[in-house]
């Protein structure tokens, strides 16, 4: 049995621990407590955690830019997978976005993360081949 609730900054340490224990998830300076606090404040009630018997078993962060939604860091620990947790987390995010009038959502998957790519394809998400994403880091710090 699991319980999904809104993520708060009090969950930060446990969420970072989940991410560190999950292959394919990259943590950057942008995942700092301060940056996470700003993200949660800018996108209230849109990121979620999953409570399981032993603590947190999963999480997802969700936000938008006013036009498009974005999912980041969907994580479910291996022992809790195949129970519908990831699907329920994503549905909460998409419903939250829809309440804000946002019907299209994007996410990024590292090309080396085949497990995640397989999951998203199995859920009906489409791999975009018509665009390339470019990034620029003003500070020059590639960990930002």
TrEMBL record:
<dbReference type="InterPro" id="IPR016181">
    <property type="entry name" value="Acyl_CoA_acyltransferase"/>
</dbReference>
<protein>
    <submittedName>
        <fullName>GNAT family N-acetyltransferase</fullName>
    </submittedName>
</protein>
<keyword id="KW-0012">Acyltransferase</keyword>
<dbReference type="InterPro" id="IPR000182">
    <property type="entry name" value="GNAT_dom"/>
</dbReference>
<dbReference type="GO" id="GO:0016747">
    <property type="term" value="F:acyltransferase activity, transferring groups other than amino-acyl groups"/>
</dbReference>
<feature type="domain" description="N-acetyltransferase">
    <location>
        <begin position="2"/>
        <end position="144"/>
    </location>
</feature>
<dbReference type="InterPro" id="IPR050832">
    <property type="entry name" value="Bact_Acetyltransf"/>
</dbReference>
<dbReference type="Pfam" id="PF00583">
    <property type="entry name" value="Acetyltransf_1"/>
</dbReference>
<keyword id="KW-0808">Transferase</keyword>
